[in-house]
Amino acid sequence: MLPTERISYSPIDARLPLKLPNGKRMAVWIIVNVEEWDAKLPMPRTVLTPPAGGSPSPDIPNWAWHEYGNRVGFWRMLKVFDDYKLPAALAINGSAIAAYLPIVEAAKARNWEFMGHGFTQRNMQKVENEREDIRKTADVIEKVTGKRPRGWLGPGLTETWETPDLLKLEGYEYVCDWVLDDQPVWLKTTTTPIVNVPYTQECNDVAMMLIQHHKASEYYDRAIDQFEQIYEDAADSARVMALVVHPYIMGAPHRLKHFRRIFDTIAKKPDVAFMTGEQILAWYLDVGPKAPAA
């Protein structure tokens, strides 16, 4: 199904207003991406180019660069969440559940939401059996948390033409890959519609630090600029803002303080709700427009 067959164009100013409970003006949610990189495969991303070029195997320096995030960076970031009592959504590879069980237990202890993020960190177009991958990811999350995940984020936001259909068939209720709005929206599938919860490529440490090569403070600067504009936009109808982080990027020692500084500013706003993806979903299902006909 083409994207334009799943969702029709809808100008945000032409919609009925959405109101958050308790007089809140906008929602902010934070997504922490935890992945397992298979040392036997080419690395999903690299920080160091091999002297002779190509994709060496094993690629120890780039594998270790990512591994640092789960060994050290995550725990450094966790202190920020604890200090500000922030909820979070953990977007996690199914294979990472067993590989990084202490991270899983830390997230469970804090009642974080668990989101499916592919069974391995590979483009969904390269997965041999996409539906099985989606199902396996949900199964392993349910086994360790006792709860089936409601949300999905594709590795690198990748999808096939069938992904939303398969997600719905496997019981997922929302997806985050469609970065096209500041409010949740409905996507049609071959069965019943699925909700897309706003995600971001702008306040995303992969885009900023690894692709655009900004200095560490850009994450804070852009997050505050984006927050101020969306806060203004939300005067008449609620908006959703996402902050996306990876332990191997924002958990690096020279970047962490700029992540922390964000909450010195926005946590002081009494009319801002810090939520998880499934909380945003529940709110939208309650007050938003009804699902379109299949």
Description of the structure:
This protein has 294 residues and is of the alpha/beta class. The protein has one domain (18-42, 58-287): TIM Barrel. 37% of the residues lie in helices and 13% in strands. It is built from ten helices and nine strands. α2 (60-84) links the parallel β1 and β2 (89-92). The longest helix is centred in the first third of the chain and has 25 residues, at 60-84. The two termini are 13 Å apart.
State the helical fraction.
25-40%
CATH architecture: Alpha-Beta Barrel
Write down the CATH class: Alpha Beta
Kindly report the CATH topology: TIM Barrel
Strand fraction equals 5-15%
Question: Main β-sheet, in a few words?
Answer: 5 strands, parallel
Figure out the total of helices: 10
Low-confidence stretches: none
Summarize the structure.
The chain is an alpha/beta fold. It has helices at residues 3-6, 60-84, 96-99, 101-109, 130-145, 163-169, 205-211, 218-233, 256-266, 277-287; strands spanning 26-34, 89-92, 113-116, 151-152, 174-175, 185-187, 194-196, 239-245, 272-274.
